[in-house]
Write a structure and sequence with these properties.
Layout lengths: L8 E5 L4 H12 L3 E6 L2 H9 L5 E4 L5 H15 L4 E4 L14 H29 L2 E5 L12 H21 L5 E7 L5 H6 L3 H9 L10 H14 L3 E4 L2 H7 L1 H4 L2 H8 L2 H15 L1 H4 L6
Parallel strand pairs: 1-2, 1-4, 2-3, 4-5, 5-6, 6-7
The structure holds nicotinamide-adenine-dinucleotide.
Length: about 290
């Protein structure tokens, strides 16, 4: 039976763009009151301006104290917290042995530790409402790709964290979901396509994994998943199949298929790194 969202509250990190902003609009349309968090204050204000009643806090998910304060302020202003969506994330790319170490470590800091910090801040309030936590991972947790080592590691970490947390919170009436998406049409993917190594890798993956999928159906699937307090939310739907087959997909043949992409990706990354350095080459161009 669906969990009535109308009148409930949700906190979303990374709400200033892409999935977070679109999900905020979809949940507002279902009658939810929203607390939106992002590190990019200007973009967050633009999103909130279209969502009457939404409250915002500018915070970096790498900063535990700032996030604690932001969540506390949001709960104070909304009065309660039923749903928390740990969505803020970054994408970096390039061969792990070549990328600047800060780019690799920032990816883990934002994507994995940022999700842990968000969950940690939100759990006491979500427990009071016997609510729902959604941790945004990625299909990269299930099918890691060369050139996405840091990203895949961070997202596999989110999945592992979410699955353990799900069991821990079940006796307390809180449900925990993990989100898995393939490439969706958001600024993250559009900017990634402007990075030489990432673009080479994406284009070389087998179809339909290499496709960029429209955002709105993924957001519909996510809103419906929140209504069902789903354990897993995935888009496109065949990602559920990839999850069921993951043990079979992890073999020498799949390694050989994806490793064919490596020489081209290494060459593209090397050229870019010579121009801008190995850290900048691993990150999307600035917005
Ligand atoms: N777009 C995809 O194809 C895709 C696929 C799978 C998973 N995801 C995941 O979905 C989430 C959202 O991705 P998106 O495509 O909407 O990206 P996006 O770049 O459009 O939006 C990400 C948002 O997170 C914010 N953010 C980044 N670092 C932050 C920090 N340190 N503290 C607070 N906010 C921060 C950004 O300012 C931005 O508003 C990410 O976790 C991403 O890894 C995306």
């Amino acid at each position: 039976m669906a969990w009535e969202l109308n009148g409930r509250t949700a906190l979303i990190t990374g709400a200033a763009s892409g999935i977070g902003a679109a999900l905020a609009r979809a949940l507002a349309a279902r009658g939810m009151r929203l607390g939106l968090v992002d590190v990019d204050g200007d973009a967050l204000a633009r999103v909130a301006a279209t969502l009457p009643g939404a409250v915002t806090e500018v915070a970096d998910v790498r900063d535990r104290a700032a996030l604690d304060t932001a969540v506390e302020d949001i709960v104070e202003r909304l009065g309660r917290l039923d749903v928390a969506v740990a969505n803020a994330g970054i994408a970096t790319g390039g061969p792990a042995r070549m990328v600047g170490p800060d780019a690799f470590e920032d990816t883990i800091d934002v994507n994995l530790l940022g999700v842990w910090r968000t969950a940690r801040s939100a759990i006491p309030y979500v427990l009071e409402q016997r609510g729902y936590l959604l941790l945004v991972a990625s299909a990269a947790a299930v099918v890691p790709a060369p050139g996405l080592a840091a990203y895949s590691a961070s997202k596999a970490g989110v999945e592992g964290f979410g699955r353990a947390l799900r069991a821990e919170l079940l006796p307390h009436g809180v449900a925990v979901g993990v989100g898995y998406y393939l490439f969706l049409d958001t600024p993250m993917v559009r900017e990634g396509e402007r990075m030489a190594g990432f673009n080479r890798m994406k284009k070389g993956l087998p179809n339909p994994i290499s496709r960029t999928w429209p955002l709105e159906p993924a957001i519909d699937a996510t809103s419906r998943g929140i209504e069902r307090r789903a354990r897993r939310i995935a888009y496109p739907p065949f990602v559920h199949g990839l999850m069921a087959l993951r043990g079979l997909l992890d073999n020498g043949v799949s390694d050989r298929i994806t490793s064919r992409l490596v020489p081209g990706m290494e060459a593209a990354f090397t050229e870019e790194a010579q121009r801008v350095g190995p850290d900048a080459a691993a990150r999307p161009p600035r917005r």
